[in-house]
Amino acid sequence: MKFSNLNNKNNNELNKFKDKLLEIQDFSKIYEKINNIWESRKEEFEYKFEVDITKDKGIIKNFPACIQEILSKLKEGQNLVHTERLYIVWFLNALKYPEEEIINIFSALPDFDRDKTGYQVRFAKKKGYTPYSCKTLKTYSLCLGKKFKDKLCLEGYFSRKLDIQKKISHPLFYVQYKQFVSMKKKEYEQNSQKKHNE
Ligand code: SF4
Questions:
Q1: Residue 5 — very low, low, confident or very high, per pLDDT cuts 50/70/90?
Q2: Among 71, 86, 97, 174, which has the highest number of CB atoms less than 10 A from its own CB?
Q3: Residue whose C-alpha is closest to residue 89's, from 75, 111, 104
Q4: Which of 133, 190, 162, 168 is nearest to 47 (CA)?
Q5: Residue 64 Cα, ligand 1 centroid: separation in angstroms?
Q6: C-beta separation of 85 from 73 below 8 A
Q7: Helix (H, G, I), strand (E, B) or coil at 17
């Protein structure tokens, strides 16, 4: 039997199995719920692409205000509260910032201890802690979208699929969305330049 025929056969059987499951009322309800959640979230995955910090140093301009503020405090050697320390480490780890660079960011702090900071950065990486969501950052009063009048934080983005304005829910999504938009803008400019030269 040809591979494509085998694939079709498997798909038909899977569909039949799915239809049978959907006849069970409880399953059908759960399936519908999952489907609705997926439909409302799947567009966000289009903007998710690997951010390679070693190749794109300009990424910092695409960081949200809640991170920019902590970075400027660190630059000035201002003390940070515990949640700010955790948040910045988890955020930079999530973007695969090199360990040494994260440690150096803390070096202007009055209580800086290279070994201790290195241990904490490595520990957080090993545990795979993910940075706080916007909702949690708001409860810690670390969200600065309002203060900095950040359009993306305040108004969200337009969802082409759902035809509605959607709020952003995570600072990492903020970075990915901004990166996506600037990548598209660059592509557009390059194509226009090419056409102009032809
Ligand atoms: S909305 Fe989210 S990304 Fe924007 S400043 Fe607030 S916490 Fe940060």
A1: low
A2: 174
A3: 104
A4: 168
A5: 6
A6: no
A7: helix
**Taking a C-beta distance cutoff of 8 angstroms, is the pair 140, 106 a contact?**
no
Q: What is the pTM of this model?
A: 0.73
Give residue limits of the domains in the chain.
2-46, 50-198
CA 180 to ligand 1 center in whole angstroms: 18
Whether residue 84 is predicted with pLDDT greater than 60 in this model: the reply is yes
What are the pocket residues of ligand 1 if the criterion is a CB atom closer than 6 Å to any ligand atom? 64-66, 134, 137, 143-145, 150, 153, 171, 174
Report the pLDDT averaged over residues 101-124: 94
- If one residue of 90, 139, 144 were mutated to test the ligand 1 pocket, choosing by the most ligand atoms within 8 A of its CB, it would be 144
164 beta partners = 159
Tell the residue nearest (CA) to atom 6 of ligand 1.
143
Specify the pLDDT at position 78.
95
Expressed in percent and rounded to 5, the helix, strand and coil fractions of the chain are: 65, 5, 30
**Which residue among 62, 147, 150, 151 has the greatest number of ligand 1 atoms within 8 angstroms of its CB, and so is best to mutate?**
150
